[in-house]
Specification:
By secondary structure, the protein is α/β, with parallel strands linked by helices. It has helices spanning 9-22, 55-62, 65-68, 81-89, 102-109, 138-142, 166-175, 192-201, 213-219, 242-245, 248-262, 272-282, 286-291, 305-317, 336-341, and strands at residues 42-48, 71-77, 95-99, 114-119, 134-137, 156-159, 186-189, 206-207, 223-227, 236-241. It is built from 15 helices and ten strands. Strand 6 (156-159), helix 7 (166-175) and strand 7 (186-189) form a beta-alpha-beta unit.
């Protein structure tokens, strides 16, 4: 395996800040090679939220797939997908790999232009091995106050980013099991690391942490999982700027990204090489990564329009979206790059 050292959190953050301040950077040039991207070369500016959830990006980079395609990555870390939407629309980024949000839909309604071209992590739906879970205070479970999802009605639930974030959609997907919606609970915007302390002191009754935070609170006896997102649920993906869509590098980038996804196993248990790549990239311990459930990935990273439809419905009902007439998701999705990745 040919491995290149990826940007560390500290250096990547500095690069991200510089890019945001300086505006558009030089990107790949059209080499006249046609639509296959076979001889295209240049730089692709990628905004990402540093997380093992986006493993295909880091694996493809470390294994040299982007380099083989003549691509140099310029990685810009983001705090959230919403932060990258203006940069994507203003051609400060070519690609964004992050979570979707109500703000993304609002931006589309306001005329900002970009396309959803691929998916990222997809929930395996395994109650015993899910990377995201609805964790309920152990005190409420032990005293019998909460025995099912339906018992969470009216209770306070911690979600990173709040109801309009990716976590809000995942919460809605889990509440559905008990016949509830986001309107039936009180959602508190609470960062994932702060969720265990909040459960411990009783300031929230439940939370939606991702692994390894969910595993840690279970082992500490703070909470127990009551539900997980159903198999196939996803709230993240790959977005292209309108300008990047027409470049030869667009297909070359996506094909390399899909190669990274194909290095990941369906059951979430990865090879030592993959764990090492993620550890090097994200600054996490390998033992922690190995103990943490991971999402699964489609080999072609095909976009999931039905999930986008569901998100839009959930956020309109929860009044997180400022419009009431749904956007036609078909106008937002471009599946041609996923199709080209397996051609």
């Amino acid at each position: 395996m040919r491995r290149r050292t990826l940007l560390s959190f500290a250096s990547a953050t500095a690069v991200g800040g510089a890019l945001a301040a300086c505006g558009p950077a030089v990107t790949g040039e059209d080499t006249g090679s046609g639509g296959d991207g076979g001889s295209a070369s240049g730089t692709v500016r990628v905004g990402h939220v540093p997380s093992s959830l986006f493993a295909p990006l880091y694996v493809a980079d470390a294994m040299g797939y982007f380099e083989d395609a003549g691509i140099t990555l310029e990685l810009t870390p983001l705090k959230s997908g919403q932060d990258g939407i203006p940069m994507l629309s203003n051609d400060q980024l070519d690609v964004m790999i992050a979570g979707f949000s109500a703000g993304m839909f609002n931006a589309l309604d306001q005329g900002l232009a970009f396309k959803v071209v691929g998916s990222m992590g997809i929930s395996p739906g395994d109650p015993e091995n899910s990377p995201t879970a609805l964790e309920v205070s152990q005190k409420l479970i032990d005293d019998g106050s909460v025995t099912s999802v339906a018992d969470l009605e009216g209770r306070k639930i911690g979600v990173a980013g709040g109801p309009g974030a990716t976590g809000g959609y995942l919460l809605a997907a889990m509440l559905e099991e008990g016949g509830l919606t986001l309107n039936d609970v009180e959602v508190s915007n609470l960062s994932t690391p702060d969720q265990e302390p909040a459960l411990t002191n009783g300031s929230v009754d439940a939370a939606t942490p991702s692994a390894p935070f969910s595993t840690a609170m279970e082992e500490a006896g703070v909470a127990s999982p009551l539900a997980v997102p159903a198999q196939g649920t996803t709230g993240t993906g790959v977005l292209y700027s309108e300008t990047f869509l027409g470049q030869d590098l667009a297909q070359a980038f996506f094909s390399a990204l899909a190669q990274g996804a194909q290095e990941l196993s369906d059951d979430g248990t990865q090879t030592d090489e993959v764990y090492q790549i993620l550890a090097d990239t994200l600054g996490q311990e390998i033992d922690v990564l190995k103990a943490s459930p991971m999402y699964s990935y489609l080999p072609d990273l095909a976009p999931q329009p039905e999930q986008l439809e569901n998100m839009q419905t959930v956020w309109i009902d929860a009044e997180q979206i400022t419009y009431t007439e749904p956007i036609d998701v078909a106008t937002v999705v471009d599946a041609s790059f996923a199709e080209g990745a397996t051609a």
